[in-house]
TrEMBL record:
This is Solute carrier family 22 member 3-like 1. Keywords: Membrane, Transmembrane, Transmembrane helix. Residues 1-299 form the Major facilitator superfamily (MFS) profile domain. It comes from Homarus americanus. GO terms for molecular function: transmembrane transporter activity. InterPro entries: MFS_dom (IPR020846), MFS_sugar_transport-like (IPR005828), MFS_trans_sf (IPR036259). It is a multi-pass membrane protein.
Length: 318
């Protein structure tokens, strides 16, 4: 489900709104985490909690009725009529006038002849620049998800009140959604990665000196979780921008797979003890701070859909 909703959203929005849409999807995740703490406090039984947590997934079936199919996908499959219907509906909702069905059909037919051919993801990675950036995104996603997963699963910061601990660590993500969007929009993705990783390493080191004071430790870890969420946000933005259109879905999906691999190792890392865990977090962030320095400078890539053209240009030059 986390993969599905992001891919669907990115398919139906323009390139210059991707960062904003990803921010809104992160906000919904944050509120869901906060609500989980409330439900667990009201129903302190893991069996009932597991059952209740599955119920919201049933809302996914509403996609079939209320969420339109991706116009890009319909066009790639030659279903021109359905693609035109959805685009005309979008134009009406956005108050766009002067859009005729005939002109739209002609433009889409021309686009069908000039659009990029579908290619396997492995073929896209044959281009050096794209391959390097994909590897960097995979590594960054893995490292940040390790840190995020440790903070998410380590809810025993306050043994006297697990629910409050989980709620505070969850609500701390909310400011990161807005901060992440503002920083990436005005200062660029590379600066956002650098800024987030260095501060996350600082708070991870600070946490090793706060293990005797649970409230101080909770505050420091809340700041670390805020920064970890910012890191995930900017990586999702990067993944949506670096991959050319024919392989964007595969690229984002594989990026999330690397993140889930990071989550897999989190329980084993937690077994080494609180102080050692924070030291590991700091070491990871220090290493991947070096990785970020390999990333090219970017500022407001989404303006005017420029990254779409750049992605095709770089993808087509070895």
């Amino acid at each position: 489900m986390p993969v599905l909703h992001k891919l669907v959203l990115l398919e139906v929005v323009s390139p210059d709104h991707r960062a904003l849409v990803i921010m809104l999807s992160f906000i919904s995740w944050t509120f869901g985490m906060c609500f989980t703490a409330l439900v667990a406090w009201l129903i302190p039984n893991w069996q009932y909690l597991a059952l209740i947590s599955c119920l919201p997934s049933l809302l996914g079936f509403l996609y079939w009725r209320y969420l339109p199919e991706s116009p890009r996908w319909l066009l790639s499959k030659g279903r021109l009529g359905q693609c035109v219907d959805i685009l005309l509906e979008i134009a009406r909702e956005n108050g766009k006038e002067g859009v005729s069905r005939r002109n739209l059909e002609e433009e889409l037919k021309h686009l069908t002849l000039t659009q990029q051919e579908e290619m396997p993801f492995t073929q896209a990675l044959a281009y050096p620049k794209l391959r390097l950036r994909a590897i960097l995104v995979f590594l960054m996603m893995y490292s940040v998800f390790v840190v995020y997963g440790i903070l998410l699963l380590g809810i025993n910061v306050m043994p006297s009140n697990y629910f409050l601990s989980h709620f505070i660590l969850s609500i701390s993500e909310l400011p990161s959604n807005f901060l992440g969007w503002i920083i990436t929009h005005y200062l660029g993705r590379r600066f956002m990665c650098w800024f987030t990783y260095i501060l996350l390493a600082v708070f991870s080191v600070a946490a090793t000196f706060c293990t005797q004071d649970e409230w101080l430790l909770l505050i420091v870890l809340a700041m670390a979780k805020l920064l970890a969420t910012q890191g995930l946000y900017v990586i999702f933005v990067l993944a949506s921008e670096i991959f050319p259109t024919p392989v964007r879905t595969s690229g984002i999906g594989l990026t999330i797979v690397f993140g889930m691999l990071g989550m897999v190792v989190c329980p084993y890392v937690l077994n080494v003890g609180v102080g050692s865990v924070d030291a590991i977090n700091a070491m990871l962030m220090a290493i991947y701070y070096k990785v970020v320095k390999l990333w090219p400078k970017t500022v407001r890539q989404t303006e005017g859909g420029r990254e779409e053209r750049n992605g095709r240009k770089e993808g087509g030059t070895k």
